[in-house]
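Slide 14.
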Amino acid sequence: MTRRLALVLLLGCALPGRARAQDGLDSLVAEYPADPRAAAVPFGPGERLVYNVKVGIFGAGAGSMAVEAVDTAHGHPSYLLQMRIDGGLMGLSVHDRYESWMDVRSLVSWRFIQDIHDPGYSSFRHYEMFPERRTWERQDNDEFGPLGSPLPLDDISFIYYVRTLPLEVGKTYTLSRYFKEDGNPVIVKVLRKDHRKTDAGEFNTIVVKPIIKTTGLFGQGGDAELHFSDDERRILVYMKSNIPKFPGSLTLHLKSIREGLPLNPESRAITLERWKARESGSEPPSLP
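Slide 15: predicted structure.
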Protein backbone atom coordinates (compact mmCIF):
# COMPACT_ATOMS: atom_id res chain seq x y z
CA MET A 1 0.00 0.00 0.00
CA THR A 2 1.45 3.39 -0.93
CA ARG A 3 1.77 6.14 1.65
CA ARG A 4 -0.60 8.31 -0.38
CA LEU A 5 -3.29 5.58 -0.46
CA ALA A 6 -2.80 4.99 3.25
CA LEU A 7 -3.34 8.70 3.89
CA VAL A 8 -6.54 8.74 1.82
CA LEU A 9 -7.90 5.75 3.76
CA LEU A 10 -6.96 7.38 7.05
CA LEU A 11 -8.69 10.64 6.17
CA GLY A 12 -11.75 8.74 5.01
CA CYS A 13 -12.16 6.73 8.18
CA ALA A 14 -15.38 7.21 10.15
CA LEU A 15 -13.74 7.74 13.54
CA PRO A 16 -14.48 11.04 15.32
CA GLY A 17 -11.91 13.78 14.60
CA ARG A 18 -10.80 14.19 18.21
CA ALA A 19 -10.32 10.46 18.68
CA ARG A 20 -8.14 10.32 15.56
CA ALA A 21 -6.11 13.31 16.79
CA GLN A 22 -5.56 11.78 20.24
CA ASP A 23 -4.66 8.42 18.74
CA GLY A 24 -2.17 10.15 16.46
CA LEU A 25 -0.62 12.06 19.36
CA ASP A 26 -0.29 8.95 21.52
CA SER A 27 1.33 7.12 18.62
CA LEU A 28 3.85 9.91 18.03
CA VAL A 29 4.73 10.15 21.74
CA ALA A 30 5.37 6.38 21.84
CA GLU A 31 7.38 6.29 18.61
CA TYR A 32 9.47 9.46 19.05
CA PRO A 33 10.74 10.12 22.59
CA ALA A 34 11.92 13.60 23.49
CA ASP A 35 15.55 14.36 22.67
CA PRO A 36 17.18 17.09 24.83
CA ARG A 37 19.89 17.49 22.19
CA ALA A 38 17.40 18.15 19.38
CA ALA A 39 17.30 21.72 18.08
CA ALA A 40 14.30 23.79 19.13
CA VAL A 41 12.07 23.87 16.04
CA PRO A 42 8.30 24.35 15.49
CA PHE A 43 7.87 21.06 13.60
CA GLY A 44 8.40 17.36 14.15
CA PRO A 45 7.71 13.88 12.80
CA GLY A 46 4.11 13.32 11.83
CA GLU A 47 3.54 16.81 10.45
CA ARG A 48 1.75 16.77 7.10
CA LEU A 49 0.48 19.80 5.22
CA VAL A 50 -1.75 19.11 2.21
CA TYR A 51 -2.31 21.71 -0.52
CA ASN A 52 -4.57 22.46 -3.44
CA VAL A 53 -2.42 23.26 -6.47
CA LYS A 54 -3.59 25.98 -8.85
CA VAL A 55 -2.30 27.55 -12.04
CA GLY A 56 -3.69 31.05 -12.11
CA ILE A 57 -7.32 30.66 -10.99
CA PHE A 58 -7.63 27.07 -12.20
CA GLY A 59 -7.39 24.03 -9.94
CA ALA A 60 -4.57 21.89 -11.26
CA GLY A 61 -3.75 19.18 -8.74
CA ALA A 62 -2.49 18.53 -5.23
CA GLY A 63 0.66 18.97 -3.19
CA SER A 64 2.03 18.14 0.24
CA MET A 65 4.87 18.85 2.62
CA ALA A 66 5.64 16.39 5.38
CA VAL A 67 8.07 15.44 8.10
CA GLU A 68 7.71 11.77 7.27
CA ALA A 69 9.87 10.29 10.02
CA VAL A 70 13.11 10.47 11.93
CA ASP A 71 15.55 8.50 9.81
CA THR A 72 19.32 8.00 9.88
CA ALA A 73 21.68 9.69 7.42
CA HIS A 74 25.46 9.39 7.66
CA GLY A 75 24.95 7.91 11.11
CA HIS A 76 22.97 10.90 12.40
CA PRO A 77 19.28 11.07 13.42
CA SER A 78 17.63 13.20 10.73
CA TYR A 79 14.20 14.45 9.77
CA LEU A 80 13.04 12.91 6.51
CA LEU A 81 11.38 15.86 4.80
CA GLN A 82 9.23 15.46 1.69
CA MET A 83 7.59 17.85 -0.72
CA ARG A 84 5.36 16.70 -3.60
CA ILE A 85 3.61 18.68 -6.32
CA ASP A 86 1.33 16.96 -8.82
CA GLY A 87 -0.62 19.11 -11.24
CA GLY A 88 -1.66 19.56 -14.84
CA LEU A 89 -3.40 22.02 -17.13
CA MET A 90 -4.01 22.26 -20.88
CA GLY A 91 -2.13 19.04 -21.54
CA LEU A 92 0.91 20.18 -19.51
CA SER A 93 1.75 18.43 -16.26
CA VAL A 94 4.06 18.81 -13.28
CA HIS A 95 5.07 15.86 -11.11
CA ASP A 96 7.81 16.91 -8.72
CA ARG A 97 9.14 15.11 -5.65
CA TYR A 98 11.79 16.44 -3.29
CA GLU A 99 13.29 14.67 -0.27
CA SER A 100 15.75 16.00 2.26
CA TRP A 101 17.45 14.44 5.28
CA MET A 102 17.97 17.23 7.86
CA ASP A 103 19.98 16.61 11.02
CA VAL A 104 17.77 16.68 14.12
CA ARG A 105 20.43 18.40 16.22
CA SER A 106 22.56 20.58 13.94
CA LEU A 107 19.89 21.26 11.27
CA VAL A 108 22.28 20.53 8.40
CA SER A 109 21.30 18.65 5.27
CA TRP A 110 22.96 15.27 4.73
CA ARG A 111 21.08 14.15 1.63
CA PHE A 112 18.90 15.73 -1.03
CA ILE A 113 16.92 13.97 -3.77
CA GLN A 114 14.88 15.69 -6.45
CA ASP A 115 12.80 13.91 -9.07
CA ILE A 116 11.33 16.52 -11.41
CA HIS A 117 8.96 16.05 -14.33
CA ASP A 118 7.91 19.45 -15.71
CA PRO A 119 6.79 20.45 -19.22
CA GLY A 120 9.78 19.91 -21.49
CA TYR A 121 12.10 19.05 -18.62
CA SER A 122 12.82 16.01 -16.46
CA SER A 123 15.61 15.51 -13.94
CA PHE A 124 16.62 13.07 -11.23
CA ARG A 125 19.40 14.09 -8.87
CA HIS A 126 20.66 12.44 -5.69
CA TYR A 127 23.10 14.49 -3.62
CA GLU A 128 25.07 13.43 -0.55
CA MET A 129 26.75 16.09 1.62
CA PHE A 130 30.06 15.52 3.43
CA PRO A 131 30.77 18.55 5.67
CA GLU A 132 33.87 16.95 7.16
CA ARG A 133 35.37 16.77 3.64
CA ARG A 134 33.70 20.00 2.48
CA THR A 135 32.32 18.25 -0.60
CA TRP A 136 29.01 17.16 -2.11
CA GLU A 137 28.61 14.20 -4.44
CA ARG A 138 25.89 13.18 -6.88
CA GLN A 139 25.09 9.50 -6.54
CA ASP A 140 23.28 9.25 -9.89
CA ASN A 141 26.43 10.24 -11.82
CA ASP A 142 30.08 11.03 -11.08
CA GLU A 143 29.60 14.74 -10.45
CA PHE A 144 30.99 16.30 -7.27
CA GLY A 145 32.00 19.73 -6.03
CA PRO A 146 33.04 21.88 -3.08
CA LEU A 147 30.44 22.28 -0.36
CA GLY A 148 29.18 25.84 -0.16
CA SER A 149 28.97 25.80 3.65
CA PRO A 150 30.10 23.65 6.59
CA LEU A 151 26.42 23.81 7.61
CA PRO A 152 24.76 22.94 4.29
CA LEU A 153 21.07 23.23 3.45
CA ASP A 154 19.19 22.29 0.30
CA ASP A 155 16.02 23.69 -1.32
CA ILE A 156 13.63 21.82 1.01
CA SER A 157 15.56 21.92 4.29
CA PHE A 158 15.84 25.68 3.69
CA ILE A 159 12.04 26.01 3.98
CA TYR A 160 12.11 24.27 7.34
CA TYR A 161 15.13 26.26 8.51
CA VAL A 162 13.40 29.54 7.60
CA ARG A 163 10.58 28.49 9.94
CA THR A 164 13.04 28.79 12.85
CA LEU A 165 13.96 32.43 12.07
CA PRO A 166 12.35 35.50 13.73
CA LEU A 167 11.03 36.72 10.33
CA GLU A 168 10.73 40.41 11.20
CA VAL A 169 9.02 42.47 8.50
CA GLY A 170 11.45 44.66 6.60
CA LYS A 171 14.47 42.56 7.44
CA THR A 172 16.64 40.71 4.95
CA TYR A 173 18.41 37.55 6.11
CA THR A 174 21.58 36.72 4.20
CA LEU A 175 22.43 33.05 4.66
CA SER A 176 25.54 31.48 3.15
CA ARG A 177 24.32 27.96 3.80
CA TYR A 178 23.30 26.58 0.41
CA PHE A 179 25.15 23.32 -0.25
CA LYS A 180 26.48 24.50 -3.62
CA GLU A 181 28.93 27.41 -3.65
CA ASP A 182 27.30 29.14 -6.61
CA GLY A 183 23.99 29.25 -4.76
CA ASN A 184 25.29 31.49 -1.97
CA PRO A 185 24.37 33.69 -0.41
CA VAL A 186 20.68 32.80 -0.13
CA ILE A 187 18.65 35.96 0.38
CA VAL A 188 15.48 35.78 2.47
CA LYS A 189 13.46 38.99 2.33
CA VAL A 190 10.58 39.44 4.78
CA LEU A 191 8.22 41.57 2.72
CA ARG A 192 5.03 42.18 4.70
CA LYS A 193 2.21 40.68 6.72
CA ASP A 194 -0.95 39.40 5.08
CA HIS A 195 -4.15 37.47 5.77
CA ARG A 196 -5.22 34.39 3.83
CA LYS A 197 -8.38 32.30 3.79
CA THR A 198 -7.81 28.62 3.06
CA ASP A 199 -9.68 25.35 3.30
CA ALA A 200 -7.72 24.76 6.52
CA GLY A 201 -8.92 28.03 8.07
CA GLU A 202 -7.97 31.72 8.12
CA PHE A 203 -4.41 32.73 8.89
CA ASN A 204 -2.46 35.87 9.56
CA THR A 205 0.73 35.34 7.57
CA ILE A 206 4.28 36.62 7.15
CA VAL A 207 5.30 36.92 3.50
CA VAL A 208 8.83 35.85 2.64
CA LYS A 209 10.73 35.99 -0.66
CA PRO A 210 13.65 33.51 -0.92
CA ILE A 211 16.27 33.91 -3.63
CA ILE A 212 18.78 31.17 -4.44
CA LYS A 213 21.23 31.93 -7.24
CA THR A 214 20.72 28.61 -8.97
CA THR A 215 17.95 27.02 -11.01
CA GLY A 216 15.43 25.15 -8.93
CA LEU A 217 12.32 25.61 -6.86
CA PHE A 218 13.42 29.01 -5.50
CA GLY A 219 15.78 30.12 -8.25
CA GLN A 220 15.68 33.74 -9.34
CA GLY A 221 13.47 32.93 -12.34
CA GLY A 222 10.82 31.41 -10.09
CA ASP A 223 9.98 34.71 -8.36
CA ALA A 224 8.72 32.70 -5.37
CA GLU A 225 6.76 33.92 -2.36
CA LEU A 226 6.17 31.92 0.82
CA HIS A 227 3.41 32.81 3.32
CA PHE A 228 4.08 31.40 6.79
CA SER A 229 1.51 31.47 9.60
CA ASP A 230 2.17 34.39 11.95
CA ASP A 231 2.34 32.21 15.04
CA GLU A 232 4.89 29.94 16.70
CA ARG A 233 4.22 27.12 14.22
CA ARG A 234 5.31 29.03 11.08
CA ILE A 235 3.24 26.68 8.89
CA LEU A 236 3.56 27.22 5.14
CA VAL A 237 0.06 28.47 4.28
CA TYR A 238 0.61 29.54 0.67
CA MET A 239 3.38 29.35 -1.94
CA LYS A 240 3.70 30.95 -5.35
CA SER A 241 6.36 30.11 -7.92
CA ASN A 242 6.78 30.44 -11.66
CA ILE A 243 7.69 27.30 -13.59
CA PRO A 244 9.34 27.68 -17.03
CA LYS A 245 7.05 26.70 -19.94
CA PHE A 246 4.08 26.39 -17.57
CA PRO A 247 1.25 28.91 -18.18
CA GLY A 248 0.94 31.29 -15.22
CA SER A 249 2.14 31.05 -11.65
CA LEU A 250 1.82 27.75 -9.84
CA THR A 251 0.42 28.23 -6.34
CA LEU A 252 -0.11 26.00 -3.31
CA HIS A 253 -3.10 26.71 -1.04
CA LEU A 254 -3.26 25.00 2.35
CA LYS A 255 -6.03 22.40 2.48
CA SER A 256 -5.41 20.51 5.71
CA ILE A 257 -2.98 20.32 8.63
CA ARG A 258 -1.79 17.38 10.65
CA GLU A 259 0.61 18.64 13.30
CA GLY A 260 3.74 16.75 14.20
CA LEU A 261 5.46 16.33 17.54
CA PRO A 262 8.75 18.21 18.10
CA LEU A 263 11.64 16.27 19.61
CA ASN A 264 13.08 19.15 21.65
CA PRO A 265 11.48 18.99 25.13
CA GLU A 266 10.60 22.71 25.30
CA SER A 267 9.18 22.76 21.78
CA ARG A 268 7.28 19.55 22.55
CA ALA A 269 5.76 21.09 25.70
CA ILE A 270 4.41 24.02 23.65
CA THR A 271 2.87 21.67 21.11
CA LEU A 272 1.32 19.41 23.75
CA GLU A 273 -0.18 22.45 25.46
CA ARG A 274 -1.69 23.53 22.15
CA TRP A 275 -3.13 20.04 21.57
CA LYS A 276 -4.59 20.14 25.08
CA ALA A 277 -6.16 23.56 24.43
CA ARG A 278 -7.64 22.29 21.18
CA GLU A 279 -9.19 19.27 22.90
CA SER A 280 -10.71 21.50 25.59
CA GLY A 281 -12.00 23.97 22.98
CA SER A 282 -9.99 26.88 24.40
CA GLU A 283 -7.51 27.27 21.54
CA PRO A 284 -7.73 30.70 19.85
CA PRO A 285 -9.56 30.63 16.50
CA SER A 286 -6.43 32.04 14.77
CA LEU A 287 -4.73 28.69 15.35
CA PRO A 288 -6.79 26.14 13.39
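Speaker note: The helical segments are 3-12, 17-31, 155-162, 265-280.
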